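Collaborator request, handled under Task 6.
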Amino acid sequence: MNVLVAATKGFARSGPPGPGRVWHERFGRGYGPGNMNAVKKAQHAVDRFQQRRPWLGYVIGAWKKFGDDQAGNLAALVAYYAFVSIFPLLLVLYTVLDLVLRSNPKLKAHVLNSAFAQYPLIGSQLRSHTHSLSGTGVALIIGIILTLFGARGVADAIQNAMNTVWEVPYTRRPKFPSSILRSFGLIMVIGPGLIITVILSSYAGGTGHLISGPAARIGALLISLVLNIGVFWLAFRVGTAAEVRMRDMLLGAVIAAVGWQILQYFGGYLIGHQLKTNSAYGTFGVVLGLLAWFYLQAQLTLYAVEFSIVRARRMWPRSMFPPPLTDADVRAYQMYAAAQQRRPELAVVLHRNHDAAQPDGKAQPDGKAQPDGKAQADGKAQADGKAQAADDTKKA
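Structure tokens returned to the collaborator:
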């Protein structure tokens, strides 16, 4: 940039007024080294400010790790598979309730209302398009199993997201058939668990008729929150590799449970805004609203997990505008590199380069990587040794 400005300035001085002078006057000023240094000083001042405040550094650390993990893409993948899997799962729920609560239609209706209440403003549309599986006996059982098997995509996406943000190496992630069993376990934990918590949340919100009075509603809200924490904690345990300690997941479960509890109360406004914005799309507006709801839930959950990881791995304070890197930055990048291990016999090692300007093959960090010259010398020595051995054989 400075070379280009200098060349343009010289052209403007030596030649007649023209496009070069106009370009320099408009764009060449204000981008000198002094101004760039001022920008860097401001960035470093912001960095020092957040690094000296633990609470702010902790929040920045979770935000930065969310971006490093590309967790937004992981949330989009979970939302997509949740959208694809929701209708088969609701089909299974409808069928099971028909079998179990056939003699109690009132309780069946209450459970269904609580299940569809998880989708504000669009639950009625989902219920109108949901029915039970037909058949009896073995055929019905086979149909339920095949439907669950086809709907496990969302559980697989959750496993992938959890192991990715926890930086579990590929070699130590659950393999077949353990991964499939974990997927079915996630479905069995999340589905019934959230339905129970939503039933209690409806009581806490004043829509139930069995509990009345402010004290009873607050009690039901607290019970619902505790159950939500238990559901998320157990789901995180099932969806993550065994090497991650369960106690390290507790904070993420608490944050996720509180966030989902809030979403149940304010989700109607959010989805209503989405449907109003996309009202011209008709039925597709409902689809977009459902996808937006799943994406919001997935993002909230992954942010909660990131807060738990940053606390458990001491990954703060981070640098917002590196260099320089903090110790937490170095630990984070070492974890990112180690997570890419694909084979147990191949190790992934990350070396910190203390001199970024060093020429290739001359000064390797930590002295662990041999320069090319030495490798060539070793190869030449080996070749000379083989030639000498061949000559000795001929003489013999």
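The cover message to the collaborator said: "Residues 1-31, 357-383 have pLDDT under 50 and may be disordered. The CA atoms of residues 67 and 325 lie 17 Å apart. Please let us know whether this matches your experimental observations."
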